[in-house]
Design a protein that fits this description.
Length: about 650
Amino acid sequence: MEEMNMNQMPEENNYGDSQIQVLEGLEAVRKRPGMYIGTTSVKGLHHLISEIVDNSIDEALAGFCKNITVTLHSDGSCEVRDDGRGVPAGIHPTVGKPTLEVIYTILHAGGKFGGGGYKIAGGLHGVGASVVNALSKRVEVRNHRDGKGYYIAFERGNVVEDFRETGDTEVHGLHVRFWPDEEIFETVEFDYETVKTRLREQSFLNAGVSITIADERSGQEENFCFEGGIKSFVEFLNHKKGADPIHPVIYVNGEKGSSQAEIALQYNDSITDSILSFANNMHTVDGGTHETGFKVGLTKALNDYGKKYNVFKNDEKLTGDDVREGLSAVISVKLEDAQFESQTKAKLGNSEIRTLVESIVNEKLSVFFEENPETARTIIEKSILAARAREAAKRARELTRRKGLLESSSLPGKLADCNERRMEYTELYLVEGDSAGGTAKDCRDSRFQAILPLRGKILNVEKNRIDRIYSSVQIIPIILALGTGIGSEFDISKLRYGKIIIMADADVDGSHIKTLLLTFFFRHMRPLIDAGHVYAAMPPLYKVYRGKQQRYAFSDEERDMYIEELGGNAQAERYKGLGEMDPDQLWDTTMDPEKRILKRITVEDAVEADALFNVLMGDKVEPRREFIELNAKYANLDT
Ligand code: 28F
């Protein structure tokens, strides 16, 4: 037979009308074993057993085989026996050779790694047999069918003992013994545990089939037979995990066209999930469409149930992660033309399977929940717990991030710091508005006066929520500039300034800012107020002047007093805001320690601010409106 370059092989199974299945001789398999079994490592070695066992499983699924035995012999060979019908003993009609010889010497299309489709249960028998033959230094096949025995032997893919009848027998089924070729594999030593795990998996996936593994080398032997199929698989997963199930196993299945899907699931008291998926009995380690369909269907079914029975708080919603906490599940699909993706060919790609599994899980699970409210409750409550834990964890993460920010030693970018480092001599001005902040930076005495401008409109009484204000871009720079930290971490010994001076306009916005800052200091930096470090700057309300003479008045009474003092046609001019003054005026009136008026904030002031803050921020609309209206009377008309 002519060899064909694998790279030139058509991608799909469109070999034309003759339905050519015979593509190449077994030499191709020996040349490039990776194409057929993925790898020549110990994993590939064990793959040989699976290929032979799969053929017995096919016979079991066809309904003719109950028992499969795998023996690891001391001479390094592996023998697989089934009690099925055995292979038809005649001559293959088109090849003209014994069927058994054809099965073991001719490579069939549609292997797992050669691309194209993959056999499905009850379909092609014996696809992988020739691959195993090609990669074994010897294979002996004993066939028992209709009361007669037959024998054939191969070496490295070639017949060495012709097919022959061996006499009458009561036995039925096929026995295959193979010696893996050390010229091909990195190691030819079978591992009992690996084989056992794979066989146990197969016995779960094929309910009722009895599989025995015997190791002649060590004398170990085990039998697996699970009438419950994948339901038993899920129980096994939970048991292996050492976790306690919290409800009986749930099982749903369905089919569409030639595709079938079955799913078993059971939650346990742990928080990790074990989800195993299979396509045509192949473990799809990388998941794929069947697994995605399952996850989507499960999430939807639980969210729908939660909504229907009003078990969610507010806008609570379960994510995929929430509903998988503590979940053990097995998804098994059977389909024609399975497409396997990813490097390892362990990810199912058929898109129609996603829809099939998703609708089975969503619909049948919803029905199950209606019929089993107790189990439904148990599951949804566990999922909600997971959702709430997730939310709490998220909040904690945000808090640490914020804390990390607060603990960082970097100073805020807008701070114009002073040169003096000794706290007793320094002052920090918290200035409302960038414009007044700029003026203050121009006129300050930078040896001991630091300026931190605060953005205007720091507080929107209508919209802001308390938690948002404290994490706001306005508050964090203050915490950083002061250096003390907040709350239980507050450390006054780290305070960077002796005086913290709030400098805001004498209008509604200014008083809001003062209220917010005082409340903040009171609630989160209380010792700062107790120790008398916090002050309010007192900008003048009026400038009274006559000719070159001028006075600053801090109240209406003072204004009238200065008008009288200067006499004649003395003028009074109202300041609208700090931003209006030039640097000299700001220095003279508000920042020059020789002339300025500072009001030290007492605990009583802070308590009052705190109460006012509650009115401003609270849920009660009436007192807030009253306050705003009352203050509007005193506010500048143009603010
Ligand atoms: C230890 C490995 O390979 N068991 C097998 C059968 C049964 C049939 C079969 C196998 C028929 C026409 C190919 C019997 N009777 N165990 C195995 N058991 N192959 S391999 O048929 C092969 C096909 O071309 C079988 C009726 N139909 C099928």
